Predict the structure.
Amino acid sequence: MLRHLGRCFVHLAVAVAGIVTVAFFLMRAIPGDPAAYMLGDYATADALARLRGQLGLDRSVLEQYALFVARAVRGDLGSSVVTGQAALTEILDSLPASAALAVLGLLIAILIGVPLGIASAVRQGTWLDVAIMLAALAGISFPVFWLGLAAILILSHGLDLFPALGSSGSEDLLTRLHHLALPALVLGFSVSAYIARLTRSAMLEVLGQDYVRVARAMGIPERRILYKLALRNALIPILAVIGVTFAWSLGNAILIEVVFSRPGLGSTLLKAILARDYQLVQAGVLILATAVVVTNTVLDVVYGVIDPRLRSG
Amino acid sequence: MAESNRGQAHGINRRNLLTLMAGVGAATALPLDFSKVALAQGAKALRVRLGSDISVLDPAHIFQIENQTVCAHIFNGLVKYDQATNKIVPDLATEWSISGDGTVYTFKLRGGIAFHKNFGALTAEDVKFSLDRVLDPNGASKYTGQLAGLKTVEAADPGTVRLTLEAPSSGFLHKLTAFNQGWIVSKKAVTEMGEKFKLNPIGSGPFMFEKWTAGSEVRLVANKAYFGGAPKFDELLLRVIKDETAAAIALEKREIDIFYALQQPEMIDRLKKLGGVQVLSRDANHTINLVLNTTVKPLDDPRVRRAMAHALNRKGLIDGFFKGTKSMAHSVLTSSFAEFTDDVPQYGYDPEKAKALLKEAGHPSFKFELTSVGLSPYDKIVVPMADDLSAVGIDTSIKVLERGAYTQARNSGNVQSCMTGVVGPPDPDSPLVSLYAKKSFPPGLNTARYDAVEDLLGKAGTAKSAAERAAAYKAILKKVMTDVPVIPLYGDRLFLAHTDDVEGLVQNSLFTVDTYSVSRKG
């Protein structure tokens, strides 16, 4: 078990370092200069050179990278070139809103997707199966920002069930939850489509196994077979899917934040990329990558707990 | 281990799932009476839509209309534009005088003005500090060039500021209006806060900065001690809503009171037809222009440039693409400028005349690259423009660049053409000097490299009377519209919508919205 854990953590560190390195060089490959962005059309060459010097942009990219890594290891991710605030603070400030959306969205997705996937597998080939899979196909096919706009039009404007804005300045928890509900539902619906499809195939695979057939031949009630035998064994692929969809939820949450005017990591990152705010993008990517990789690592550990065969794999 | 596995599998049964789903359903469809909460919040607060998030609220470094809209509520200038008439009227200064030779401006400040959050009284020292920090070449302010020609700023006494210019400048008051470099900051606050001042602005305006929630909202609270009288709202909430459809629904549902920066023609149309909503519009101080590089062949020939102006169906663009929501631009000064005139050479859509002019110039056909930034509507309108130019024999290709790359290409000066708009106050020098003065490139926006109105710009600057100044500007407009180094494509119109229950909103011709005059009915 310890070896399994150790391996997971090594994978975690390598993945985060890789992602951050790629993000660092990709950002610098985009044309456009943060100093020119900040100083505008009337910037003199002197002013530009001075600001580049202040921001460290006059050094070579490799030097900048070495400096970034040396600082990041000490927990210093620099400051936003636009606002002057510590980059880590800005990112961490915007994280709770994104996390709330992603977690609630994922929860809704699991609650919709897993039962529908099971129902679809159990009633394979019936109209119910076809209807669920069609709905899932729609959920996957429609881009999440389109779903968001449609939800605002129908559920907020048409039926007046939810506010059109996905956030409120109110400190009141219930008001905030009410504003969070519609974005979370949209995210949940979109992600549930994946979960339903993958739960269905995982269940179908398990239901076709010999031990299930034997159980049926022994006259064990169908409900017991489904929930005690099949679902338990289908849990590993389902968990794997949920791990992957968490990353996907975070990605979609970024789009949803824009549609629903919600604060969060997405809004902060989008603004930072447009302004060539390197430090802020780097800090954001680092935190996002860490969140995704840590989630997957936790799931790796959980697989090991659920299925001892995987610990030695 | 086996026990826990069993427990996990056992935990998932149909009844539990249904209960959980019902719970989430109930939580997400929380009581519909929440709209009342929004309304109650709205009674004390004025809620305004911002189309994009803010980033910097320090006048020396400010850019982007959203930042400027927030700062318009926080800061004052020595003088300001009357929102309705664009006349320069007193703000922090109650009176001012200009020396006979036009080089010394003396301002008398209002007494008893306090900065927000106990940062002390506003004195001449703060005015000196605010202008000096913009002038400081090491301060990296975007607006150093705006105050070019300002030699010294002196605080003669706490209530008197004296500004000395290197040479008379008839439009200098425009540079001191409450906008960008003209906003006066607290010396104590900037000195104490340093970099933090960028997002903790301290001014003397009707609202005080309270909180910024990135991507969501900016919260300002009323400055009850404001010298013009306390605002009618306790709070001003500027809500970031990027999508116009979502903003329109929020307005309809009374989640916001004012829809600022309304742009989509379909949305303008829809809101105009909606009951309980008013749509305001006004010409902006802003034209969108096709700038032609006059140093490259054959664009160095004015006949070729005139031919291009005749080839472009600008009315078609306004009526078709923009559905009539923009205005015809006769020059780079729109009707919102006091110096506006339509007594300039006009270039109606006339492809035959364009072909004849090209033939006369000896260039019936040539290759031309239309360079645009990849932002709407520029990247879209270049398509019909290229069609129009190709139709008269100009072999036009389109190059759309991402914003950073576009700025670099434009600043290099090596492009045949670019699409340039000049956003600013109703100061005629703002578009005229920016687009036509030799000193405005490099750096700057005169990528046409035009230099034929230097003497006329000088005359306008040293004009002794308003009539002399107006005549000089008229001469400039005639000359530049004869030479057409810049083809004005259309004049921007500003739209904003508000619900019926607010009143007193005066739309300005800047791209900002100032809500100090707004109150709620009843």
